[in-house]
């Protein structure tokens, strides 16, 4: 369903309602029922209303008038001056007082409406195009689409597996080409894109949904020349529905992709993710000439945790080790579960060395030592009650480009270093071409 944009005001937008002389108290209630997201301030006198308008800088003002309003024309003129040129000033009155409202409107009001208040008439008076009720209930069959629109739809479908921002940008451009508007802004789960003029006060808006959940919004600004027509509403509804389906499909694909690249036990990225990321990092390293260090390590005597205490205990040990490496590594370093009780960490510096003079693989040892020290302080009791004992690791380091020229060679060389550490007595980390640093 498309809603008019007034229900999507930003927090900084307000409506001030002056009820002075009104015979009932339904003005605020009517607007609140029609648009529960509006920020509405009610004042019972023009003086209070003028103060509130000056304080809030509202988008619109609704003021009740009748023949008993003191100095009504002067009051409306003062209200106009306080509201400024940007705020819409609309008067309301009972039918018998319409002549008063007409004359008062000449003092600076933009329009007037009759009581009992119809929220749709007020929306029109402040410049929000109402959508006819039948259009709210159904989508017209097969809105006519240009060849350009069809091409853009095809492009959106092709981007289902791309970055969410790419889809959002394409959607904004599509709606701009489909509807004669000055601008379109699309917001989807934090991603924001605009085509044409960025929309801050939309005339039309439509929620983007994933099932019953609202995941974003399309906001359409002022029309180019003529007011919007039903065909424009149909287009917006059609593309909103289509975009919701595409965005839902993209979210589902990202979800399954995460599952495919995530180890279920530890929650870390898996070997498939490591291979993909390492290829990309090495390609970047070759182009920009920076080193990359790979650590392969495993948990010493891991089999005994499963044999003596059960597989739940073993799983908890794996999660503990993974969590510690995540804590001690930097955001760009890639921590993965390689398989079984083996882990892999890629250390790299995309913006250059961490500190002047730092180099690989020495810069990785500080992270490793912090993890090993943390493991000394964390007994297995924390990871897998009721067993106890110290968790230790053994690992091997290899660095591109000195030890290997590609991913396969780098993994092989790191694995050789790991085997050397194991043969040397475990609880140590060995780097190819470096002295043993184990204890």
Textual characterization of the structure:
The chain is an alpha/beta fold and 439 residues long. It folds into three domains: 3-130, Response regulator (Rossmann fold, 3-Layer(aba) Sandwich), CATH 3.40.50; 137-259, 2-Layer Sandwich (Beta-Lactamase), CATH 3.30.450; 271-431, Reverse transcriptase/Diguanylate cyclase domain (Alpha-Beta Plaits). Helix content is 44%, strand content 19%. The protein is built from 15 helices and 15 strands. The protein has helices at 26-34, 46-56, 72-83, 98-105, 119-125, 133-137, 147-158, 164-178, 230-260, 271-288, 302-309, 311-328, 362-377, 380-383, 407-423; strands spanning 3-4, 15-18, 40-43, 60-64, 88-93, 111-114, 183-188, 191-196, 204-210, 213-220, 292-299, 334-339, 342-348, 393-400, 429-431. The strands form three sheets. Strands 1-9-10-7-8 form a five-stranded antiparallel sheet, covered by helices on one side. A five-stranded parallel sheet has the order 3-2-4-5-6, sandwiched between helices. Strand 12 (334-339) and strand 13 form a beta hairpin. The longest helix has 31 residues, at 230-260. The protein starts with a strand and ends in an 8-residue tail after the last strand.
């Amino acid at each position: 369903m498309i809603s008019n944009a007034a229900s999507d005001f930003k927090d900084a937008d307000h409506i001030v309602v002056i009820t002075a002389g009104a015979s009932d108290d339904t003005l605020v209630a009517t607007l609140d029922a029609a648009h529960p997201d509006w920020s509405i301030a009610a004042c019972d006198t023009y003086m209070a209303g003028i103060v509130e308008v000056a304080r809030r800088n509202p988008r619109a003002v609704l003021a009740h008038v009748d023949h008993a309003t003191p100095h009504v024309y002067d009051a409306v003129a003062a209200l106009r001056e306080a509201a400024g040129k940007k705020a819409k000033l609309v008067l309301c009155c009972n039918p018998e007082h319409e002549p008063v409202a007409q004359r008062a409107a000449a003092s600076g009001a933009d329009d007037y409406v009759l009581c009992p208040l119809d929220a749709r008439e007020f929306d029109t008076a402040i410049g929000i195009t109402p959508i006819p009720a039948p259009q709210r209930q159904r989508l017209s069959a097969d809105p006519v689409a240009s060849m350009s629109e069809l091409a853009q739809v095809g492009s959106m479908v092709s981007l289902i597996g791309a970055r969410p921002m790419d889809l959002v940008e394409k959607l904004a451009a599509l709606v701009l080409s489909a509807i004669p508007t000055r601008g379109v802004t699309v917001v989807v789960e934090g991603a924001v894109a605009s085509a044409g003029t960025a929309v801050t006060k939309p005339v039309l808006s439509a929620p983007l949904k994933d099932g019953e959940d609202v995941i974003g919004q399309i906001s359409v600004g002022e029309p180019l020349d003529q007011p919007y027509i039903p065909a424009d509403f149909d287009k917006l509804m059609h593309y909103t529905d289509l975009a919701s389906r595409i965005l839902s499909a993209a979210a589902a694909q990202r979800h399954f992709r995460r599952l495919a690249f995530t180890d279920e036990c530890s929650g870390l990225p898996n070997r498939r993710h490591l291979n993909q990321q390492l290829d990309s990092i090495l390609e970047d390293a070759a182009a920009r000439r920076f080193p990359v260090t790979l650590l392969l390590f495993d948990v010493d005597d891991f089999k005994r945790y499963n044999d003596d205490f059960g597989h739940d205990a073993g799983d908890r040990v794996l999660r503990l080790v993974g969590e510690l490496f995540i804590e001690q590594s930097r955001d760009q370093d890639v921590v993965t579960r390689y398989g079984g009780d083996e882990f892999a960490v890629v250390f790299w510096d995309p913006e250059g060395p961490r500190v002047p003079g730092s180099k690989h693989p020495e810069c990785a040892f500080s992270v490793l030592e912090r993890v090993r020290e943390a493991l000394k302080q964390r007994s297995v009791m924390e990871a897998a009650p009721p067993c106890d004992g110290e968790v230790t690791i053994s690992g091997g380091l290899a660095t591109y480009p000195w030890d290997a020229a590609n991913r396969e060679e780098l993994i092989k060389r790191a694995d050789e270093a790991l085997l050397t550490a194991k043969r040397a007595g475990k609880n140590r980390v060995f780097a190819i071409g470096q002295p043993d640093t184990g204890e």
